[in-house]
Amino acid sequence: MATLNKERSSRNTTHTSAPTGLADLQDAFQQAILAGDDGILDYLRDSTRTSRDVLLGVYRHAYTARLIEIVAADYPVLHRFIGDEAFDDMARHYIADRPSHQPNASLVSRALPDFLRQTKPYTGYPAVAELAEIECALNTAFAAPDAAVLGLGHLSRIQPDDWPRLVLTSHPSARQLVCSTNAYDIWHAINAEEAPPQTTTGATPSPLLVWREDLVPRIRPIAAEEAMLWNEMENGTTFGRLCEMAALYDDPDNAPMRVAAYVQSWITGGLLSAAEGNPTDVAVS
Amino acid sequence: MSSAYVSSESAGSKPQAHEIDNRPRYLGFGLGLRPQHYADILSGDPPIDWFEIISENYMHTGGQPLAALDQIRARYPIVMHGVSMSIASTAPLDLTYLQGLKELAKRYQPEFISDHLCWTGVHGINLHDLLPVPYTREALDHVASRVATVQEILQRPLAIENVSSYVEFGTSEMTEWDFIAELTRRTGCWLVLDVNNVFVNAFNHDFDGKAFIDAIPRDRVVQFHLAGHEHNMTHIIDTHDALVPPEVWDLYRYAVERFGPISTIIERDDHIPPLSEMVSELQIARYIAEQMLPELKSAQRQRLRA
Fold this sequence. Notes:
Chain A has 285 residues and is of the alpha+beta class. In chain A, 48% of the residues lie in helices and 13% in strands.
């Protein structure tokens, strides 16, 4: 890049005496877009109607405009919550900080929640990051890979003795989020075209389940017990051990019934893909 | 995939241009498939012969995009059109991407697979833009080598599209059309001729769009793209957000005269109108082609279905 970084003698003449390699040209072109470097201008021509600066500007402008448009399309609730100006600033900051490394433009915005959690000044506004997390989870659920959806009929074929060793597998679209703020209430209000509540930080975490049902992304708050059991289920814990945990967590008398009710709601919602016996687990309730 | 191509590959040598034949069939008049139109396509019976999909939108995904595409593919032929192959990049080819493309092609059996004569980034970054190539011998050697490699990986010829560009490199040693013509001669790749991009570049770089079209080998073009653009007086930007303008229709008429019946689509990526309006605009393309090629008229009305 030494040849490209040297000072240009004039922008009205084109440097052709030392042909520059394709790799160098592409490196300089990318730096012109990402970092505003002007070295590439030495290797471009003015057109008969305008200067090479203006023409290079088409690429510079298009890059930012296109990616901001994608981020805005993916985070409409966050956009409404923080307003046009703050959203535009945030999106520009994000695009500059997290350039895309994958081929699908529609995935460009997937790192926004992580960016907001880790980057000042957004670290001071956890509800903003959590609102982004909710929208990102819904977008992810929408296009998550397909997999089998477990039906209630499958459970009816499981023998009573096999239930304790049963291991459940969640659908690829399903995941649990845990918010420390009232981000879900804010999301819900804005989504319903209502005024959002003031941001608050809760005394206890607020778990949410996000998944896809009949091709439509869904979200619902869940109680602490269901959150714990979902988390353990995702880690491969058997149905028997889930019942033991429920019995230790709350009323032991109806623990298996509670766990069965959770599992039934997961199945009817389309949140599970498989239920298989695990012969290695010896825990039985 | 032609049998000549298979035997060539199994013999351990790269296919020569003349070996990659098996020209994709003529599909008629289609549209770039956009999610906004899924419901109207599936609930109606619009007079559209085929669809071109953006490959990346359906790779490594599931849910509604694939469910809709499954249904559409059951009724229409499709072509897979990519935007991230980055065939002219000096970065290594993304083999994971190519594998994903191959898997998508296996599932949807497209008529052919296309991408652009451009690069999208280096050093692992994707700028999600179709960036310009200097028309140098070095770049031609590089792109031709990459096209040949991709064709071997995908086990089928690629179709390469000319892109709109706003800058010219001082280092260029040949015209855009000579570069493209030589690329297809060397690799046997097919060409997607974007008529709007020819018009845009002709204005931006001061050449005669008809000269571009005249220089493209008559037997290599398998698809036309049509689209609208934004005229800024000193330069035109390929925005795909407007109707195909009269000047582009004129150039399309000229291209039809040279290349004959070529599968054609209209692309719209912004300010996307209702499907019925796209169908009406497509009817203009159909009318012009039928006007230029009267033999199309009778066959044209019979919709192709896979």
